[in-house]
Amino acid sequence: MKAGVIAVQGAAPEHVQALEAALADLGRKGSVITVRRPADLEQVSCAVIPGGESTTISKLLLRSGLHELVRERAAEGMPIMGTCAGCVLLAKEGDGEVDRTATKLLGLMDMAVDRNAFGRQRESFEAPLDIEGMDGPFPGVFIRGPVIRRMWGSCKIMARHGDRTVMARQENMLALSFHPELSGDLRVHRALLEMV
């Protein structure tokens, strides 16, 4: 198995390490690569779109030719996980900030998101989350995270923080407001690998 982390901008190295550890934890042979070009994405059987700056990642996905290919691979059933900025990009609808910055969303999941719904960097926090299908709380690390405001179609809630949806799944895609790669807990990365 080969897993990929889209590394045009943002927190790719931490996801690479988490996926490598999750592969070892599952006892699976495989490798993890950083994805910067379409040829890289063609090689992988699952991918992570990490946190970072969603407008910048969007522009770089378009410039590199990855934008349409991510959409094609998702339609083919390749598992994709978007965290923080990646969660924003997976959505079909953004907020006024997405419109103002002309961020081109991938539009893969039946959900609407609000960017930076959890405030500024200094308001970052950690909170235990009950994730559907996981035993025991998951340490959710929130850094200027988006919130999933609305869902429809086959998009389903996987976790909430208070009254806010912070994780959703739609078929082969996972969207997270938080940063599982910073938690020290491999369960979310293992879940992605197990979707392959």
Textual characterization of the structure:
With 196 residues, the protein is α/β, with parallel strands linked by helices. It has a single domain (2-194), classed as Class I glutamine amidotransferase (GATase) domain (Rossmann fold). The protein is built from 7 helices and 12 strands. It has helices at residues 12-26, 38-43, 54-64, 66-75, 85-90, 96-100, 187-194, and strands spanning 2-6, 31-35, 46-49, 80-83, 91-93, 109-114, 125-129, 138-142, 147-151, 156-161, 164-170, 173-176. Strand 11 (164-170) and strand 12 form a beta hairpin. Helix 1 crosses helix 7 (187-194). The radius of gyration is 15 Å and the shape is globular. It starts with a strand and ends with a helix. 48% of the residues are buried.
Give a topology summary:
Layout lengths: L1 E5 L5 H15 L4 E5 L2 H6 L2 E4 L4 H11 L1 H10 L4 E4 L1 H6 E3 L2 H5 L8 E6 L10 E5 L8 E5 L4 E5 L4 E6 L2 E7 L2 E4 L10 H8 L2
Helical content band: 25-40%
Could you name the ranges where pLDDT drops below 50 across 5 or more consecutive residues?
Answer: none
According to DSSP, the number of beta strands is 12
What's the main sheet like?
7 strands, mixed
Q: Per DSSP, what share of the residues sits in E-state strands of 2 or more residues?
A: 25-35%
Architecture, according to CATH? Answer: 3-Layer(aba) Sandwich
Query: Structural class, from secondary structure content?
Result: alpha/beta
Report the C-alpha radius of gyration, rounded: 15 Å
CATH class category: Alpha Beta
Distance between the termini: 9 Å
With strands numbered from the N-terminus, the spatial order across the biggest sheet is 2-1-3-4-12-11-10
* CATH fold annotation: Rossmann fold
Query: What's the shape?
Result: globular
Mean pLDDT: 96
> CATH superfamily, please?
Class I glutamine amidotransferase (GATase) domain
Count of the domains: 1
Please, how many helices? Answer: 7
